[in-house]
Design goal:
The complex is a heterodimer.
Chain A lengths: L4 H13 L4 E6 L2 E7 L6 E5 L1 H5 L8 E4 L5 E4 L4 E4 L15 E2 L4 E7 L2 E6 L4 E6 L6 E2 L4 E7 L1
Chain B lengths: L3 E4 L3 H13 L3 E7 L6 H5 L2 E6 L10 H11 L3 E3 L9 H9 L3 E2 L4 H8 L1 H10 L14 H11 L3 E9 L2 E6 L2 H19 L4 E5 L5 E9 L5 E13 L2 E7 L6 H18 L3 E9 L5 E7 L6 H8 L3 H9 L16 E8 L11 E2 L2 E3 L6 E5 L6 E2 L6 E9 L2 H14 L1 E3 L5 H9 L1 H4 L7 H4 L3
Parallel strand pairs in B: 1-2, 1-4, 2-3, 4-5
Antiparallel strand pairs in B: 6-7, 6-8, 9-10, 9-12, 10-11, 11-14, 12-13, 14-19, 15-18, 16-20, 17-19
Helix pairs in contact in B: 4-5, 7-8, 12-13
Classes of the chains: A mainly beta, B alpha+beta.
Chain lengths: 148, 444
C-alpha cells in the first residue's frame, strides 16, 4: 500500500469527525495506525508495516552533541521535512517547548512514507533549523535542543 | 531526454558516469555516505546528497534513501554503476514505480541472469555452449560410470552449492571413490541436501567475456571480447582486449552466436556474457552479468565507443547507432586495477592519500576516485583507480603499461602496483600464455 498525504489527511479527518483516539487500517501486509496524542489537537500518524516492507528501519531521532553550544536533533533520513502532521496543522513543536523522550518533533517524508522523528531525550527546543517543506539530507540538523 | 541523472554509486564508477553525463549536457546528483562527504564523486557532481552513515547497508544499499534523494533533487533517471544495487531487480522496479528511468536492464532480465542455475539453463536453451555435465548422481557406481563418460578430471559438485563452495576436483576413478561419500555428507550438512552432479573440469581455462548492448528496439550489438584470466580468488586484477587466444574467425563466430542468442532472449542496456575457453579452443558459458563492468574501458578503447553514453541513449529510447557487424577491435588495450591493498598479503590498506601522481601521456587513461588529501575509507571496495592503456599492438600496450605504472605515485596507502609490475614482467604474460591459474603460478 502506498501512503500519500491525501490518504493520511482523510484518516486524520475521520479521526476528528468521529472523535476517536485511534484508527488502524489493515490491507494485505500493510498496516497504518493514526492516533490522537494526549496533547489536544495533535494527531500523529504512524506507519508500521510499510516501513519494514520497504526495507527501512523505524524512524528514530539522532541526538548529536556538539562542541559549540548544545545538542542538535539530526535527521535520520534523507527526505522532506515537515513540522506539522498536515499542511494546515499546528507544528508538532515550537521554540520554547519542553519535550519528553519519544515525543514526535517532526516528520521526514521519504518515498511517500511519513517518518516520525521522536525526541531521544527530555529538553527544550531552542531553535528550528529547517523550514517546513524543505529537503533534508541524512545527518542534517533539524532542531537545536537544550537537554534537561 | 531526461535532464538530471542520480548516480547510485561511489568511487571511480560514479565519476565515470558523471563525466559522460556532463559531456551529454545532463545534470548530475551524487549520493554519498557520511564518510564520503569529501569524496571526489561528491565534489564533482552538480549536487550531492548525504543518504546515510558509512555502513553501505544504510547508505549505498538503502533503496528508500536513494529514492528520497532523487525525489528531493528532482532527478529523472538513475545510473546504478556496478556492485551495490546495480543487479537488484527490486531497486530497478522501485525506480520505475517512482517515475525514475533506471539506466540498465529490465528487472526480469536481472532475475533471470542473476541466478546461476536459471542463467545456465537459459544459456543452454539459447544454443550457447555450456559446460559438459551430468544429471544428478544416484550412487558411487553411477558416479564412476558418468565420470568415465565425461573423461577425467571432473568436478564433483553439490547441487545446492555456489560461490566456489561444495566443489571437489577429482583426477581419477580411485580419487572419486575416495571423496564421494565425504562430499555427499558435506553437502548434506552445508546445503541441506546431498544431491551431487559432475561437470567436466577445465584445468587451465582462460576467462573470455563478450560485451553486448541491447536497445529498446530489440537490436543487439556484440562489441568483441575481453580477456580477464588474470584473477585472484575469482577477482579480476588485469584485463585486456582483444584476447590473444581468439582468432578472427573464432571472434566472428562467437560474436554471431552471442548476438543470435541474446536477440532471441531479448536484452536491454549493457551486459557481459562470460565464458571459459579450454585448451582445445572451446568456449563454454559461465555466467551473464547484467550491468556495466569494471573492465569496460578496454572495450571502449579498442572499439572507439563510450559505453555509458550508449547506456544513457538506450534508456532514453534511442536506437543504437553502431556500424554494421562485426565490429573489429583496433589496437590493444590493457587495464590494471589499482587496489588499496598490500601487494604481498592482499590485506586492505585504507587511509589518507598523502601524495598522488597519476600517469599520463599518449594512450594512457586513468579512471579514479581518489585525490591528494582524500580518504580511502575501509568500508568499501579497495579499487581506487584503473590504469588503462591503448597501443597499436599488445607488445606496445605492455610497454606502455609498464611505463605508466612506473610513473604512478600513490602515497599514504599501500597499493598492488608492485604486483601489476610483476605480472607485466612475467615471460608467460608477455607471451600471452595465461590461464585463470596464472596468479597461483606467478611465484612458482
Amino acid at each position: 500500500m502506498k501512503l500519500d498525504l491525501d490518504q493520511l489527511r482523510e484518516l486524520i479527518r475521520l479521526l476528528d469527525e468521529a472523535n476517536l483516539t485511534e484508527i488502524e487500517v489493515e490491507h494485505d501486509d500493510d498496516r497504518i495506525r493514526v492516533r490522537r496524542d494526549p496533547v489536544p489537537g495533535a494527531a500523529a500518524a504512524e506507519s508500521l508495516a510499510p516501513l519494514t516492507a520497504a526495507g527501512q528501519e523505524p524512524a528514530s531521532a539522532a541526538l548529536a552533541l556538539d562542541d559549540d553550544d548544545g545538542a542538535y536533533v539530526t535527521s535520520p533520513f534523507v527526505g522532506t521535512f515537515y513540522r506539522a502532521p498536515s499542511p494546515d496543522g499546528e507544528p508538532f513543536v515550537d521554540i520554547g517547548d519542553s519535550v519528553v523522550p519519544g515525543q514526535v518533533l517532526c516528520i521526514v517524508e521519504a518515498m511517500k512514507l511519513m517518518n516520525e522523528i521522536e525526541a531521544e531525550a527530555a529538553g527544550t527546543i531552542v531553535e528550528v533549523l529547517v523550514e517546513n517543506g524543505k529537503p533534508v539530507e541524512y545527518g542534517d540538523r533539524l532542531f537545536r535542543f537544550e537537554i534537561g | 531526454m531526461f535532464e538530471k541523472v542520480l548516480i547510485a554509486n561511489r568511487g571511480e564508477i560514479a565519476l565515470r558516469v558523471i563525466r559522460t553525463c556532463r559531456e551529454l549536457g545532463l545534470r548530475t546528483v551524487a549520493v554519498h555516505s557520511e564518510i564520503d562527504a569529501e569524496a571526489l564523486h561528491t565534489r564533482l557532481a552538480d549536487e550531492a546528497i548525504c543518504i546515510g552513515p558509512a555502513d553501505p547497508s544504510r547508505s549505498y544499499l538503502h533503496i528508500p534513501a536513494i529514492i528520497a534523494a532523487a525525489e528531493i533533487t528532482g532527478a529523472d533517471a538513475v545510473h546504478p554503476g556496478y556492485g551495490f544495487l546495480s543487479e537488484n531487480p527490486k531497486f530497478a522496479e522501485t525506480c520505475a514505480q517512482c517515475g525514475l528511468e533506471f539506466i540498465g536492464p529490465l528487472p526480469e532480465q536481472m532475475r533471470l541472469w542473476g541466478d546461476k542455475v536459471s542463467a545456465r539453463a537459459m544459456a543452454k536453451s539459447l544454443g550457447l555452449p555450456t559446460i559438459e555435465g551430468t544429471e544428478l548422481i544416484e550412487d558411487i557406481e553411477d558416479a564412476v560410470r558418468k565420470a568415465e563418460g565425461l573423461g577425467f578430471p571432473v568436478l564433483l559438485k553439490a547441487s545446492g552449492g555456489g560461490g566456489g563452495r561444495g566443489m571437489h576436483v577429482v583426477q581419477s576413478k580411485e580419487g572419486l571413490r575416495a571423496v564421494f561419500e565425504m562430499a555427499r555428507a558435506e553437502s548434506r550438512v552445508a546445503f541441506g541436501n546431498d544431491a551431487l552432479y559432475l561437470e567436466k573440469f577445465l584445468e587451465r581455462p582462460r576467462h573470455i567475456e563478450f560485451q553486448i548492448l541491447g536497445d529498446k528496439q530489440g537490436n543487439i550489438h556484440v562489441l568483441g571480447e575481453r580477456e580477464c584470466s588474470i584473477q585472484r580468488r575469482h577477482q579480476k586484477i588485469l584485463e585486456e582486449a582483444p584476447s590473444v587466444a581468439l582468432t578472427d574467425e573464432m571472434r566472428r563466430d562467437m560474436s554471431a552466436t552471442v548476438r543470435r542468442a541474446m536477440s532471441e532472449a531479448g536484452y536491454l542496456s549493457a551486459g557481459t556474457l562470460e565464458f571459459l575457453l579450454d585448451e582445445r579452443g572451446a568456449l563454454t558459458f559461465l555466467e551473464m552479468n547484467p550491468r556495466i563492468q569494471v573492465e569496460h574501458p578496454v572495450t571502449e578503447l579498442v572499439m572507439g565507443i563510450d559505453l555509458i553514453s550508449e547506456q544513457i541513449r538506450i534508456a532514453d529510447g534511442q536506437p543504437l547507432e553502431l556500424p554494421a557487424q562485426p565490429l573489429t577491435p583496433r589496437g590493444h588495450a590493457i587495464e590494471c586495477r589499482i587496489n588499496a591493498e598490500d601487494p604481498d598479503t592482499f590485506a586492505p590498506s585504507p587511509g589518507i592519500i598523502t601524495e598522488l601522481h597519476m600517469a599520463g601521456g599518449t594512450g594512457v587513461r586513468v579512471d579514479s576516485g581518489i585525490y591528494g588529501g582524500g580518504r580511502v575509507p575501509p568500508h568499501y571496495d579497495p579499487l581506487v583507480a584503473k590504469l588503462i592503456v591503448h597501443a597499436p599492438t599488445r607488445v606496445q600496450a605492455i610497454a606502455k603499461m609498464r611505463r605508466a605504472l612506473s610513473e604512478t605515485i600513490i602515497g599514504g596507502i599501500r597499493t598492488n602496483i608492485p604486483l601489476h609490475q610483476r605480472i607485466l614482467e612475467h615471460p608467460a604474460f608477455e607471451e600471452g600464455r595465461i590461464s585463470t591459474n596464472f596468479m597461483d603460478e606467478l611465484d612458482s
